[in-house]
Amino acid sequence: MTAQSVSLSTIRQILINVKDLARATAFYRDTLGLKFLFEFPGMAFFDAGGVRLYLGRADTPELDHPASILYYLVTDIAGTHESLVAKGVECVAKPRFIAPMPDHDLWLADYRDSEGNIFALMSEVPRA
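^ thats the sequence. predicted structure below, dont judge the formating
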């Protein structure tokens, strides 16, 4: 295989850095409702629509930083927002219109998880 023939297309797993694994596991399982898969000492794994989320502490100081922003696709962004806020999830930016797409409108909302990482909701709202 040559360098030109490499083509990455599928994300199988994403690591989310955490400080308190028990607290983060409870947040992703109980608050966000992600399917808990399994755990090993210092690690917990969830299914997010076929992508595995791996919660764990950073192995080295240079890896100890907030996670990339994960965008969870939802059909009802307003209702999901209300549910998260009712569960005490910190909202950074309320649901808002981002852009008109050819057949839908794109909406986003931003939140903090139990470890201070930002995550977002994304909704592709069909036009009437």
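The domain at 3-59+66-126 is CATH 3.10.180.10 (2,3-Dihydroxybiphenyl 1,2-Dioxygenase; domain 1).
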